[in-house]
Amino acid sequence: MHYRNCFICGASVQGFHRFCNNCYNKKFRENEVIYHKIRNEWRLEAKQESSEYFYFLNEANDIFEGNKNMIIGRKGEGKTAIAKYIYSIKKHNIFTEKISFQNFPFNRLYDTSDNQYTRPNQYISIWKFLTYSIICKQMINNQNINSNITNELRRIFPEADNNKKLSDLISEYKVKQFSLEFFGIGFNTLVEKKIGITWIQLIDVLEKIIIANIDDAKYYILFDELDEDYKSFHSIDEKTNYFDLITGLLKAVQDMRALFTENNLSVYPIVFLRSDIYNRITYSDKNKWSDSIIKLTWTPEKLKALLKHRLNIVLERDDISFKECWYHLFSDYKMSVGSPPHTKRIDTFDYILRSTQNRPRDFIKYFQECVKVAIEGKYPFILPTVIKSADSAFSEYMKNEITDEMYAVLPEYEDIFAILSSIRKQTFKPFEFVDKYEQLVEEGQIPDRGAQAVLKLLFEFSVIGNVPAIKNQAIFKYEKDTARFNFRENIIVHRGLYKALQIF
Questions:
Q1: I need a labelling partner for 66 at 20 to 30 A (CA). Which of 51, 220, 448, 471 fits?
Q2: Do the Cβ atoms of 455 and 477 come closer than 8 Å?
Q3: Quick check: 493 and 420 in contact, CB under 8 A?
Q4: What is the pLDDT of residues 467-489, one digit of tens each?
Q5: CA 392 from chain center: how many Å?
């Protein structure tokens, strides 16, 4: 009979177990507290999570200091977390407002376009009106602004203290004649008079009011969740209106930022936008925006730093290393990978990383599934068997995440996933997909978008990657943004999708 010493207390243990029963149960009770914290406190949606879990990226500082005004990234990469962090800052000289388009009737925006301008410029004025209105309301709440100014602004925006909804501002915008009491702010004389003013003139008035009277405080206007109307468009007009609206916002933000910079004002309108949406914008001067953009990217090193931050919080420690954090929860056993007899072994972090697309949200989901299994099985550590047991649930999550991104450009995604499932290989040749795709087209089950075009889309969303013939390494878009699909190379399915697609 084989014996070894307990890993913790040194007592003799029969068989190949690493702990005696007492230490096993004690370690489980200790880590069970941590498991429940991760399960109950870690959230896929940043808005639902405590701000203490926010990991401060350098990118956030570039936004906060006004060096950049657009953050572009995939779902789950932390755009909303950065927006939430900035919005949560409450100081006497910092004013923040977040404009969210969740559950917002986009058609009301589309109806207010100014037809005297060509596409997409017809929406620029509405974005400026909304932004200037919010800035004026922030000025009303700023005690450093002259009370005469704030009192007059209240006459223009009497609802400022009641947090008037964006949809109400849209209704005001649609009024072609806007009557208000305007007293010549910024001029030497105070002449109160009632004037009829069009909304375009109103934008010019608000702009002058802001420039002439705003102080040196910082003002942030955050445009987030702009993908709420990004869907499978049923007509060319729907698609055109949506992208014109978003392009108009980006142009308006650039115009306003240039104006405020020229006048040495710390007023920062900031846009948070999904990268797949941004990539579909076809505006001719789009390249000029590159200096204003931060593209979120997560390397393994960044992910380790983020996990170290989060694990320090749940462990109630100050600043212990990533390795110490990781092995407080995970066993130091290696994971077996590759084809039978599975002789290749890798660390648990690297094993999980392979199933993700290098996004914080992916790791949060994998942790949630691991601790769920560990709690149910009363495991003192997250063992390789626990990690592999979490694979199936994580794979379904990954499929759903990709679906949410992809359905607007590929509504028949279920049929496309079914093709990959029917091939039932991790790696295959392009013609194997093409043959099955064209058969479904011929049978009238799916529209003909072209097999090669569909493969390019799958590559763009990292459902598949390429396997170069001369390198034993897959190429995925999420790891290399400049990568392009190569039809002459073999295709590999992302391993995070294996279980959901029944590929083994």
A1: 51
A2: no
A3: yes
A4: 998 777 899 999 998 999 999 99
A5: 24
